[in-house]
DNA sequence: GTTTATGCAAATTCTTTGCAATACT
DNA sequence: AGTATTGCAAAGAATTTGCATAAAC
């Protein structure tokens, strides 16, 4: 997955911040919050980061996960790794948030079926599934103490 | 479901604000945000409302649903309507949020099974399932225009 | 050259904290 | 009487907006 090609494909100008942020998402392989990015890109203005995240959301490069504390995390949309372009896609996979280290990951294997029998007259656009608990790493650390 | 009995049962003092807020939750039969309460209880200080919500959360009278915009909503925990007291309970039922009118409801019939095969070494405490879309009422209004 | 993005300051919104006055048991 | 709760002011955190400068196309 090439950073510059991806940005061009969705019609965003190639700026240093956008290239850096997209690289971070690709390398991270997990969800990142605004403050994660701010920390990693210390010389970048926080407002620019907010705007970068907005433009990525708008172009469907990333999706937003709000954890149970109300903190927003963002993760790459997997469909951009493939050549085909699914335009209206539901993010109906699960997410796991560790309440200790706050690490947030997509669980691609866990997909929720929309309950079409319920909510008969409503239209569903988006699904958010967040599992909160303690990650394996933090359990290990707890057991050591 | 009696307001005063319920408050006593969980060990909270009977104050005007608590009685009013609990009544609103019972009558509303849907999730309410802090600003919903502020609007309905105009003569009550907003800080008191924050603290009321905290105490209700702590006593498991209500649960918190963070909608995809990051706005917190709160809804009654159903187990308090019965006499038996489940102390550690997962809120693994779904929630529906209308992106237009922001109405938020529990969908009690829609329960998510925790995927025990995934996340083998992690511990899951809480599940949040939020479906976002357009509610039947807002669809009707759209069609009229 | 035209359009879009950035950086800074400032405004807004949401939430928490400290403390004296008040209400509950 | 003793303890918990309230209301107000103020602090803090998260996010948005306006605008001049700078960078991308």
Number of helices of chain A: 5
Count of β-strands of chain A: 6
Strand content of chain A: 25-35%
Largest sheet of chain A: 3 strands, antiparallel
Radius of gyration of chain A: 17 Å
Order of helices and strands of chain A: HHEHHEEEEEH
Describe this protein with a few key phrases.
Arc Repressor Mutant, subunit A; homodimer; 145 residues; alpha+beta; DNA-binding; 3-stranded mixed sheet; 3-stranded antiparallel sheet
Structure notes:
Two copies of one chain form a homodimer. The first copy, chain A, is of the alpha+beta class and 145 residues long. Chain A has one domain: Winged helix-like DNA-binding domain superfamily/Winged helix DNA-binding domain (Arc Repressor Mutant, subunit A, Orthogonal Bundle), CATH 1.10.10.10. Chain A contains five helices and six strands; from the N terminus they run H-H-E-H-H-E-E-E-E-E-H. Chain A has helices at residues 3-10, 16-28, 34-40, 46-58, 136-144; strands spanning 32-33, 62-66, 72-76, 93-98, 104-111, 123-134. Chain A has a three-stranded antiparallel beta sheet with strand order 1-3-2. Chain A starts with a helix and ends with a helix. At the A-B interface, strand 4, strand 5 and strand 6 of A face strand 4, strand 5 and strand 6 of B. Strand 6 of chain A pairs antiparallel with strand 6 (123-134) of chain B. The structure holds a DNA duplex (25 and 25 nucleotides).
């Amino acid at each position: 997955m090439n950073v510059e090609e991806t940005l061009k494909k969705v019609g965003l100008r190639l700026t240093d911040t956008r290239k850096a942020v997209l690289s971070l998402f690709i390398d991270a392989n997990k969800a990142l919050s605004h403050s994660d990015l701010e920390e990693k890109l210390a010389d970048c203005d926080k407002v620019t980061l907010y705007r970068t995240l907005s433009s990525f959301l708008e172009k469907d490069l990333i999706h937003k996960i709000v954890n149970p504390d109300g903190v927003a995390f963002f993760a790459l949309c997997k469909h951009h790794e493939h050549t085909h372009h699914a335009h209206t896609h539901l993010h109906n996979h699960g997410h796991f948030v560790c309440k200790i280290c706050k690490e947030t990951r997509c669980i691609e294997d866990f997909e929720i079926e929309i309950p079409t029998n319920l909510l008969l007259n409503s239209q569903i656009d988006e699904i958010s599934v967040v599992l909160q608990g303690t990650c394996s790493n933090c359990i290990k650390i707890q057991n050591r103490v």
